[in-house]
Amino acid sequence: MKLGDFDYNLPRNLVAQEPSYPRGSSRLLVLRRENGNMAHREFSELPHFLRKDDVVVLNNTKVIPARLKGRKKRTGGRGEILLLERKTESVWTCLLKPARRLKEGCEIYFPPAKLKAQVLGRDGENQHLIEFEPSEGLEEIMAQIGEIPLPPYIKREKGPTSQDVEAYQTVYAKHEGAVAAPTAGLHFTSSLLNEIKKRGIELVEITLHTGWASFRSLKGPQIEKNRIAREYFRITPSAALKINEARKKGGRVVAVGTSATRALETRARGSGEVSSGEGWTDLFIYPGYEFRVVDALITNFHMPRSSLLLLVAAFVGRQRLMAAYEEAVENHY
Question: In degrees rounded to 5, what are phi and psi of residue 195?
Answer without folding.
Answer: -65, -40
